[in-house]
């Protein structure tokens, strides 16, 4: 076959392909290859025809052969790209990327439009594969090419926005180069917008700030972006909200942070981050109740903020609402699991605070939960304060040996730490070794003089040590007063001050004041509530007694606050108001249906009201529960007598006289 015939055969092959006669084309090409086995065009045409005949392996082999012969010729590369693009096989994507890379190289010095088209295809391919770093690098080349070609500002702006769109899902991958490319794209897009200020630009700025807030190490850039947006859009609250949340999560409350909270609340009084910020400010100023109110309100609007839950729990701990603090810590731990949650810097703090709160609840179940919380603290074994908390948890659980082991270890390794000595004190106190407990608490106070709990326990140590130390003003009383001064929310200290003034000093008025304060601080403290009511009655101040009882019974749910219902029921019984007495005594029995004295009092109330049958049932129930209650048995007989059931009454009187021969009311009956 002459050179002329080769050309003619290739022309025939091209025409056959144009006419979709692919088998015919293959014949012509094979004829050429018999003559010239390294003919580039023949191999390319075979690739084209085989591809159309759905023979991908033959097509690929032909293109590869052509590329081998002429690596810098376009046709075979273009054909291979088309072949891979049509393939449904996933494993060709890596090969396709290599082909696109070669095409970029070949187009670079010539057809710029085709270079851009291939570049876009390559970017799309990388994006499908989630290869964000390659997306970033390739798209930057495209933008650079456009800049060199003198593209308009508006076109470049759209390109930067497209780059943002391509990379916005990469933030989970935490690849620093990709992250920097994304942030650079945002900065370019923000600065190249057509209308500033404008709605599109404002939304773009919001997206930029939202993106920055996901990167904990970009704080300087975040603060700058927020401040710049505030300057451009002074009525938009978004940048201030993000800035406030950033300050809250950072845990450092500078003047700048406080200023940011104030500005945000001025702009939007209902903003979650602003209200949380104000709550933290209150916490710093020791306004604990206001802090709890603001933090609770703010968290209803912005719940996914672990730091804010920690601050709320901290404020609740300050006023000894330990169960509330545990719930807040649990919410904080839940918020850590969300994408908005920061890196786990707050996890250790929340877990430690939760353990402290559980220890204050002081039962074995809470202690078990505290130990579990401490097990999740990172580096817990090397933190002496965490070890001391663990020691207290063991003590509350009744595991004194383990607690003692930790205590001895801490005293050796950290003799200057107040918590080491306090733990030793708690152990001695629990074992009633009061003299050793005294030494330990004095050591703890020497190292940390501002801790009310240490003075409280030193006071309790003196209270139980001996009658002398209990009565010695300089011992128990002094320590309780110091504790109360350091922590005016410590209800249990006011209860013991009440005990001191009532039992030792004989100052009922002052005792009542202390009990009232203790009860106001802790509405579950029945001892203080009861004592405040009893002393008020002794002092003839029924108004105060009733106001306390009314307040408790108004808030009480069914089956609770027995002491208050019982006290008020007895008051109504004494003052001739039997119907109210019946209602209150019934409420008391819902809380404790096995209280025989309460049944007896209810019988009296029914009797006073003239409800004889129910009175009889109540007296019988009282004597059933406690057969030693002779008075109830007598009252049952007396009611039977009133009801005309004389035989029953006589039998009951005789039953009493068998037990108590000289029980006069029964003899009279």
Summarize the structure.
The protein has 669 residues and is mainly α.
- CATH 2nd-level architecture of the domain at 381-481: Alpha Horseshoe
Under CATH, the homologous superfamily of the domain at 381-481 reads: Tetratricopeptide repeat domain
Shape: elongated
Q: Could you describe the largest sheet, including whether it forms a barrel?
A: none
Distance between the termini: 146 Å
The assigned structural class equals mainly alpha
**Which regions have little confidence, pLDDT < 50, spanning 5+ residues?**
none
CATH topology of the domain at 381-481: Serine Threonine Protein Phosphatase 5, Tetratricopeptide repeat
Describe the structure.
InterPro entries: Ski3/TTC37 (IPR039226), TPR-like_helical_dom_sf (IPR011990), TPR_rpt (IPR019734). By secondary structure, the chain is mainly α. It has a domain at 381-481: Tetratricopeptide repeat domain (Serine Threonine Protein Phosphatase 5, Tetratricopeptide repeat), CATH 1.25.40. Helix content is 77%, strand content 0%. It contains 38 helices and no strands. Helix 21 (384-396) runs parallel beside helix 23 (418-430), helix 29 packs antiparallel against helix 30 and helix 30 packs antiparallel against helix 31 (542-555). The longest helix has 17 residues, at 112-128. The model has no long low-confidence stretch (mean pLDDT 87).
């Amino acid at each position: 076959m002459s050179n002329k015939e080769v050309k003619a055969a290739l022309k025939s092959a091209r025409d056959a392909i144009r006419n979709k006669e692919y088998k015919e084309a293959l014949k012509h090409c094979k004829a050429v290859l018999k003559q010239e086995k390294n003919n580039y065009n023949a191999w390319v045409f075979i690739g084209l025809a085989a591809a159309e005949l759905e023979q991908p392996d033959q097509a690929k082999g032909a293109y590869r052969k052509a590329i081998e012969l002429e690596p810098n010729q376009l046709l075979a590369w273009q054909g291979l790209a088309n072949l891979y693009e049509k393939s449904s096989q996933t494993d060709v994507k890596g090969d396709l990327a290599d082909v696109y890379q070669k095409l970029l190289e070949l187009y670079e010095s010539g057809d710029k439009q085709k270079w851009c088209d291939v570049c876009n295809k390559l970017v799309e391919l990388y994006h499908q594969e989630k290869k964000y770093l390659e997306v970033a690098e390739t798209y930057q080349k495209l933008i650079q090419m456009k800049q060199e070609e003198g593209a308009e500002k508006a076109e470049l702006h759209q390109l930067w926005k497209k780059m943002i769109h391509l990379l916005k899902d990469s933030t989970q991958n935490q690849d620093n180069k990709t992250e920097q490319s994304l942030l650079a794209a945002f900065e370019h897009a923000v600065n190249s917008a057509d209308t500033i200020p404008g709605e599109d630009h404002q939304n773009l700025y919001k997206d930029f700030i939202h993106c920055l807030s996901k990167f904990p190490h970009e704080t300087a850039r975040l603060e700058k972006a927020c401040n710049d947006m505030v300057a451009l859009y002074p009525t938009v609250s978004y940048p201030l909200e993000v800035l406030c949340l950033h300050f809250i999560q950072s845990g450092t409350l500078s003047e700048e942070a406080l200023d940011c909270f104030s500005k945000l609340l001025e702009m939007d009084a209902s903003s979650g981050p602003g209200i949380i910020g104000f709550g933290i400010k209150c916490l710093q100023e020791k306004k604990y109740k206001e802090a709890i109110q603001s933090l609770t309100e703010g968290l209803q609007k912005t719940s996914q903020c672990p730091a804010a839950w920690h601050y709320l729990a901290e404020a609740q701990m300050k006023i000894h609402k330990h169960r509330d603090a545990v719930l807040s810590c649990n919410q904080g731990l839940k918020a850590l699991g969300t994408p908005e949650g920061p890196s786990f810097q707050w996890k250790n703090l929340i877990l430690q605070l939760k353990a402290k709160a559980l220890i204050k609840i002081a039962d074995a179940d809470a202690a078990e939960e505290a130990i579990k919380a401490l097990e999740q603290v990172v580096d817990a074994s090397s933190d002496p304060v965490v070890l001391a908390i663990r020691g207290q948890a063991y003590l509350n659980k009744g595991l004194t040996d383990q607690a003692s082991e930790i205590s001895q270890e801490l005293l050796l390794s950290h003799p200057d730490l107040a918590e080491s000595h306090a733990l030793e004190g708690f152990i001695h106190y629990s074992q009633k070794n009061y003299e050793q407990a005294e030494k330990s608490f004095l050591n703890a106070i020497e190292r940390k003089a501002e801790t009310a709990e240490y003075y409280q326990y030193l006071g309790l140590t003196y209270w139980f040590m001996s009658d002398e130390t209990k009565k010695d003003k300089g011992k128990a009383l002094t320590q309780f007063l110091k504790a109360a001064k350091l922590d005016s929310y410590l209800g249990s200290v006011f209860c013991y001050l009440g005990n001191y003034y009532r039992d030792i000093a004989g100052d009922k008025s002052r005792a009542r004041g202390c009990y009232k304060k203790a009860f106001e601080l802790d509405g579950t403290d029945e001892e203080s509530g009861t004592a405040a009511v009893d002393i008020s009655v002794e002092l003839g101040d029924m108004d105060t007694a009733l106001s306390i009882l009314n307040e408790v019974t108004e808030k009480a749910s069914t089956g609770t606050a027995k002491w208050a219902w019982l006290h008020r029921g007895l008051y109504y019984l004494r003052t001739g108001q039997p119907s109210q007495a019946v209602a209150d005594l019934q409420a008391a029995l819902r809380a404790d249906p096995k209280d025989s004295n309460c049944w007896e009092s209810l019988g009296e109330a029914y009797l006073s009201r003239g409800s004889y049958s129910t009175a009889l049932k109540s007296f019988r129930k009282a004597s059933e529960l406690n057969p030693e209650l002779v008075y109830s048995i007598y009252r049952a007989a007396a009611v039977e007598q009133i009801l005309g059931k004389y035989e029953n009454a006589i039998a009951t009187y005789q039953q009493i006289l068998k037990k108590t021969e000289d029980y006069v009311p029964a003899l009279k009956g």
